[in-house]
Each structure stands twice: as C-alpha cells, then as structure tokens.
Specification:
The protein is of the alpha+beta class. Helix content is 49%, strand content 16%.
C-alpha cells in the first residue's frame, strides 16, 4: 500500500512539474513575442514620428495566423532603416508562426485584404483599405 501511495505521489509531482514548466515556457515565449512586437512598433516610428506626408509612409504584413496568412498590416515610416525594420517584422512573423504551431493556437481563417495606401489622419499613419473609406 505504501508503494502505491508513493507512486501516486511521485506521478502527481511529475505531472505538476511538467505542467509548470510548459506554462512558464509558454508565458516566457508570450513575453518575448510581446517584446518583439513592441520593438517593431517603436522602430516603425508610428508613435514617435508624426505623419504629415503619406508619401513618406508604407505598409507591410505582420504576424502569422494559426490557420495561415498574416495577422494584419502595419504602417512604417520610410525615414527609418527599412531593411532592418522589415527583418524585424519577418523575424516576428516567423516566431509567431512557430509559437502557433508549438502551442496549438487557434484563430479565424478569414483572409485580411491588404490596404490600398497610407493616409495621415491627425498626425498618425492610417491604413486605408479602399478608396471608399474617404
């Protein structure tokens, strides 16, 4: 009887420790993804550079939905190091794809159409998805 109790206790401790490791790893990965995204936002100059001329802005896809395709689009200033910025976006997108696969993330499977251009609205870059938005 003592052996059965010991095995039961050992098994529960094993399961508990495995679950704790997984959740802490997932939490760490989520925090890392958030840091990557925050760096992209600050690098894109969305929050620090006022948008006064739409010709000085562009956009790109960002992120990865669990069932395929990008999570969305992000505007960025052409006054930044565009190559470096797009590399950060690519790294984030690959990391989100790997995260989704690893953790079995579920998402909608709708297709997000690309914007047609960037406009400046109240000093902020705004993605316009059709000419009917005006």
């Amino acid at each position: 009887m003592k052996n059965i109790k010991f095995l039961f206790l050992a098994f529960n401790l094993f399961l508990f420790s495995c679950n704790t490791d997984d959740s802490s790893t997932k939490e760490t990965e989520t925090q890392n993804m958030t840091k990557m995204y925050d760096e992209i936002i600050s690098t894109s100059m969305v929050n620090t550079n006022p948008c006064t001329n739409p010709a000085e802005w562009s956009f790109t896809t960002i992120g990865s939905k669990a069932c395929g395709g990008s999570s969305g689009y992000i505007a960025y200033s052409l006054k930044i190091n565009v190559t470096e910025f797009l590399k950060k976006v690519e790294n984030y997108t690959k990391a989100e794809d790997a995260y989704n696969k690893k953790w079995g993330v579920i998402s909608t499977c709708d297709i997000i159409l690309p914007p047609t251009r960037v406009d400046c609205v109240n000093g902020k870059p705004t993605l316009v998805y059709s000419d009917l938005d005006n």
